């Protein structure tokens, strides 16, 4: 059996003359959190829909733990929270989760037990018997996450789980995702436009543009590859240190720190330490600036579009 829990081989999806996903291949290892990012219309949601089997590829193949995309066996392994979840107007929260549990293969008793457990876990007890269709956007997102977990999947697909939420609700959803990953060793594929939040959750970044794969790397490796050579420094007399550094380097004076641009970070580190010692300064901060996912995204797409 393959070491990968999801394998996509040369997937293409066309809608008439428009190619939404173009010869897309991907392999996901179990127990990792993958972030899939790209511009609007890049093919992220279409890719997730093909993994779930709700869209059939025009070309290519794929499997979930050896089971064909869209098969009953594959769907038992997958949990899916779409960007826009449709709820039945007449169903309460507990009724909806129970119903989704039975669709996932649980008995009536098992589905009810799991529904109540998830309602408690996601802090929905006070709303258990209220109509889900009347819930706020944040509460609907929680219910959508709960239904994705109702049948204990091994792989979770989350499409824009924090979209259109206020900051508090976004943090609650992300905290819930972190807890699920830690408690259950889930494999998660999550798409989001809020890259500053996404980078706090993911291990691996997948970048897609015009339906094509642009990047498929461990996020630390990607940041290392695209880093710009910026050293961040702070001491007890930044004004003095800044004057010394300006003679030789391009520098920026930030809030309490100095950012120094260089093509040789290691040599610069030695020089900064030497200046600190010679001027009898106290060093407070000295580290290489880590490239944010937002900047990584911009640099990778700029290179792709040239």
Topology:
Elements: E1 6-15, E2 18-28, E3 33-37, H1 44-52, E4 59-64, E5 67-68, H2 72-77, E6 78-81, H3 93-103, H4 108-121, H5 137-149, E7 155-159, H6 167-184, E8 187-191, H7 195-198, E9 204-209, E10 212-218, H8 219-226, E11 230-235, H9 238-246, E12 250-253, E13 258-261, H10 265-278, E14 283-288, H11 293-305
Parallel strand pairs: 3-8, 3-9, 6-7, 7-8
Antiparallel strand pairs: 1-2, 1-4, 4-5, 9-10, 11-13, 11-14, 12-13
Strand content: 25-35%
- What is the CATH class name of the largest domain? Alpha Beta
Oligomeric composition of the shown chains? single chain
User: Helices and strands, in N-to-C order?
Assistant: EEEHEEHEHHHEHEHEEHEHEEHEH
In short:
With 306 residues, this protein is of the alpha/beta class. The protein has helices spanning 44-52, 72-77, 93-103, 108-121, 137-149, 167-184, 195-198, 219-226, 238-246, 265-278, 293-305, and strands at 6-15, 18-28, 33-37, 59-64, 67-68, 78-81, 155-159, 187-191, 204-209, 212-218, 230-235, 250-253, 258-261, 283-288. Helix 3 (93-103) crosses helix 4 and helix 8 crosses helix 11 (293-305).
